[in-house]
Structure to design on (590 residues):
């Protein structure tokens, strides 16, 4: 079993596009076991729409919420004073709970002198699944308005990790950014794919991401998506590649890549002969080479 | 009167930084004083779009969290801290609790429940805040979260707090916030207290899906969502449907242009680089409509 983490720093560089396409390619190559794709972009998971797979809910992700008994509450304000995220507010005749500010630490439960707060729970997100012939999907989704993306991401990852042994390849599609949840997805990777685009913003965020990847000793592969985009910063990108000696693959920015993207389709399925598809096949072969070198 | 305008998008790479940088440039040059905030603290790019930081006013470390320190001499190994921690960040060690600092949210419940005063807290650096003027004399506040860090939303909250303190000093009438992709914690912090959120959508199902989630969040937080349709000519047939699909007021549409990539490469806002271009005129039309909405 090999875990491949797809990350990149900047949004919209093509992480999900790359993750979905290599998942489909690897599933057509793998003989006995299936491929698992894990969508960790819990704010806006898109892999299942690209793959046209129907999700079913597997489990709710819950977090602590104070259950306030108005009979016992004397409006003393102890919980309000202590709440580190200001999720409790004292009104003249009521204790107000603001769910979107609560991080679920339960301090209020311990400081209330009248035991007016008990342990409740609220749903902060969901883990959903879809099963295909050769490709299975696990998707994490945060409940809109909850400040719990990182936790939902980590819980989705934990859930997926219990199942990875059944698969030959596991692909983790990380969200944009360089935060904690992404670092967790990097730690367990066997191979890291860094997806970028040839723009100044893409390179800037890639450099931040690369520093994070460098904390770990993992084989890595740079995927330059949208290669050929006019006005791009090709020299700077080459310098970065040479300085860091990163193996890289270029995905040409042809109209097929763009069409598949705006129509929400899987490139290699709708345009099997496109230059961009051929580059993705090359990328998949390179991933297999890295795996063989490790073995 | 001070207006706070957030530029956000549910999905990454739709053109938030492009719109935010030009909006800040437009307001500052043609309307009134602006303060721009880069609230994408995991991948901060606004300064690339606005020209570099010309003059730094101040730079400071941000201590956004606290870490527990255990005094093992005082610890009586009652394990109440372990039971109370909602984030599974405490493990049993021979001498007492061992803290997993990667999991710790720093909210202080372990210290609160400890009967022997064995756990105290010390501040932890979670990022950096930089305030200064960009090359085009726009005051900018940027934040950068430590790589692999947590709680980007708290840093965004802090950036906004500093922005409010600065607006009167700078006599700023507009705050423009370049938000992170998604709908997570940093975006909730960006939206809280804002007047308007400009929802930047490109013609792809993934982008519309992300925008829908963002609009729901904006409604929940009482922030008025207004649509800008970016790169609309990539898929005109679908673009036409988007205002109906999202059912919010539209400020206008902007065509796809290579000038955007060039502008980033040369680190000059599009409006500065080529004010007569079609795309600049489209931007100005959108911004004028936005000003009408604020009246």
């Amino acid at each position: 079993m090999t875990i491949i983490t797809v990350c990149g720093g900047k949004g919209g560089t093509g992480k999900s596009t790359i993750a979905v396409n290599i998942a489909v390619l690897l599933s057509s190559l793998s003989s006995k076991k299936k491929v698992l794709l894990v969508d960790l972009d819990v704010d806006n998971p898109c892999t299942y729409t690209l793959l046209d797979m129907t999700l079913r809910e597997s489990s709710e992700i819950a977090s602590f919420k104070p259950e306030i008994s108005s009979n016992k509450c004397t409006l003393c304000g102890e919980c309000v004073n202590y709440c580190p995220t200001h999720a409790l507010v004292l009104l003249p005749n009521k204790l107000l709970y603001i769910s979107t500010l609560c991080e679920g630490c339960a301090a209020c439960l311990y400081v209330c002198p009248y035991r007016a707060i008990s342990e409740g729970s609220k749903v902060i997100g969901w883990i959903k699944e879809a099963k295909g012939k050769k490709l299975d999907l696990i998707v994490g989704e945060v409940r809109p308005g909850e400040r719990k993306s990182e936790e939902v991401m980590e819980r989705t990852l934990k859930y997926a990790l219990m199942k990875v042994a059944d698969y030959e390849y596991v692909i983790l599609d990380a969200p944009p950014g360089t935060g904690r949840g992404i670092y967790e997805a990097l730690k367990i990777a066997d191979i890291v794919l860094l997806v970028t685009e040839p723009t100044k913003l893409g390179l800037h965020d890639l450099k931040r991401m690369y520093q994070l990847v460098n904390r770990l000793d993992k084989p890595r592969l740079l995927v330059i998506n949208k290669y050929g985009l006019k006005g791009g910063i090709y020299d700077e990108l080459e310098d970065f590649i040479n300085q860091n000696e990163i193996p890289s693959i270029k995905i040409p920015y042809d109209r097929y890549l763009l069409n598949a993207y705006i129509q929400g389709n899987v490139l290699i399925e709708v345009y099997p002969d496109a230059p961009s598809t051929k580059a993705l096949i090359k990328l998949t072969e390179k991933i297999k080479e890295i795996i063989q070198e490790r073995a | 009167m001070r207006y706070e305008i957030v530029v956000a998008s549910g999905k990454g790479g739709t053109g938030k930084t492009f719109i935010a940088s030009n909006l800040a440039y437009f307001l500052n040059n043609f309307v009134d004083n602006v303060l721009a905030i880069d609230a994408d603290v995991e991948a901060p790019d606004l300064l690339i779009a606005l020209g570099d930081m010309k003059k730094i006013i101040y730079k400071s470390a941000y201590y956004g969290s606290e870490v527990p320190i255990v005094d093992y001499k005082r610890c009586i190994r009652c394990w109440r801290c372990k039971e109370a921690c909602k984030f599974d960040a405490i493990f049993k060690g021979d001498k007492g609790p061992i803290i997993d600092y990667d999991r710790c949210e720093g909210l202080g419940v372990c210290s609160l429940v400890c009967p022997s005063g064995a756990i105290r807290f010390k501040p932890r650096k979670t990022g950096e805040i930089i305030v200064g003027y960009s090359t085009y004399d726009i005051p900018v506040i940027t934040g950068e979260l430590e790589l692999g860090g947590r709680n980007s939303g708290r840093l965004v909250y802090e950036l906004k707090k500093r922005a409010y303190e600065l607006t009167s000093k700078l006599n700023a009438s507009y705050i423009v916030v370049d938000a992170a992709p998604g709908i997570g914690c940093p975006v909730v912090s960006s939206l809280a207290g804002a007047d308007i959120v400009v929802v930047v959508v490109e013609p792809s199902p993934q982008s519309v899906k992300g925008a829908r989630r963002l609009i729901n969040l904006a409604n929940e937080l009482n922030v008025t969502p207004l649509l800008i349709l970016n790169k609309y000519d990539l898929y005109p047939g679908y673009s036409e449907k988007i205002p109906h699909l999202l059912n919010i007021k539209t400020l206008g549409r902007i065509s796809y242009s290579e000038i955007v990539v060039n502008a980033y490469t040369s680190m000059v806002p599009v409006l500065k680089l080529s004010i007569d271009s079609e795309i600049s005129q489209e931007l100005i039309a959108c911004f004028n409509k936005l000003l009408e909405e604020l009246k």
User: Anything to note?
Assistant: Chain B has a mean pLDDT of 94. Chain B touches chain A through 58 residues (CB under 8 Å). Chain B has eleven helices and 13 strands. Residues 152-170 of chain B form the longest helix (19 residues).
